[in-house]
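$ fold --in a.seq
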Amino acid sequence: MTQVIIQPSYGNRAAREHWAQTLDREVDFASGPVANALTAQERQALLRLHPEGRARFWGATSVHDDRMGTLREGDVVLFTGQKMVRGVGEVGVSFRSEAVADRLWPPDPDRGSYRNVYSLRAFEPTDIPYEEIWALPGFNPGDNFMGLRFLNPDLSAQVLEGLGISTLTEAEQEAARARRIEDDLRQGRSIASGAELVAGERSHTESTTYHSPGGTRLVRRTESLLVQEYARSIGLDSPERSRSQAGLSDLVDRRQGRYELVEAKSDISRSKIREAVGQLLDYGATDQQITSLAVLVPARPDASVTSYVNRYGIDVIYRTAPGMFARHDAPAGSREHLLQLVRGLPTEASSTSQAGSGRPAAFPAPAAAAVTRPAETPSAQNTRGAHSPANRGVGRGL
């Protein structure tokens, strides 16, 4: 389980100086003062993850010894300051050394050395406002994240999913699982499962030296920015998200009696939109409040893709210009069929299948072609009636 740490790191002059010294730039640990302070074991561990002999570093004083002892490779650090997450890092090597720390940063006059040192496998500057974290389940609006904070597993998962953070360590573990399964298939062995597969994954990963490729993205912001723009366009100043056992939706639209779950994707490829459809169907099966499901994308998809999504009773919302969106609604029959299925209600198709072949019910083919409408302002929607099918247009940016 990846642990998330919230690390204040920009709120005062000393912190900003530390940032400039060891986050804005990589530090040479293969030669010079830092190299002279490293033990042979520390140097070997650093070179395994940073073979070029350079890395970014951060640290914490002895006040945090116990919690810093839980830090592991692949954990995620949110570097915060001035009401935003200013950077996201993935932990590399962590160790305790006053000798190394004091060559990286001057000791604090009151708390002493920043002796709990860790390198960063990856680091990405960001500008994520605190409001995006406050909107996640389990967080409180107005929390300014004072002091070093280690999040529990549930809140860590919320942050990773909610902010779209993925790590190099996870990618390695996934590749190791794939290699293990491929080996089992080639050798005609039973496929490992559960703890056995995880153990195999770890052994594959630990024996592999991995160099972080240039341009690696830790944080996927495209979908978040798209959701924010869409939310503003329909008059949602404080966008909500829904958490269920299936995961975290990108947006819940509760305007005027509706309860629409929206899943955003960063492009209009069929593979990305198919992924969104699967997520929405999973969310819908665990959230009985829904009145509709919608995919949100940054441009108009191909007509065949839109038809595919609509057939499942899911609407398509797409950006037409800055602050403006249009939507292509699913036929009413397809949407009603979808809602009956996710709510576990009997449908005409399911009754027929149970009486006949026993095959699962299929979604009906689309009826008349759905109509694509241009954007409407929220005030226009109110004037024409909130629940009329013709009023499912989307507003201009405010």
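$ fold --in b.seq
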Amino acid sequence: MKKQEVIPRKETGPAAIGKGEPVVVRIHPPQLKALDAWIAQQELPFSSRPEAIRRLVEIGLTAKTNLKQPSAALANRAKELAIKAVEGIIDPSVPIYQMPVQYAVLTCVGSDSMFPLSSP
């Protein structure tokens, strides 16, 4: 019997750019429209949506966020509003000496000492 020759298979698909982990993401039509619009606005449009998504992820991860702490006046105002809200919730039939406990329960103040999750 004659020996059979093995014909090597040709590789299909685009050449690998790099070794990375594939991530599958489901994108809804409004997001796809926004993505396509962003791609069209670029000076050099990307050849594919995945390339555009990689670029957007890179931009998002390198962007500096400008998170500021609220001013002292704003923090004090928030505290005043919280106190008024808690006072509206407190049970008026509770004796006056138990009011601090009510405040603590409603605001979770001191919850570690009142309701320990683990024994010391």
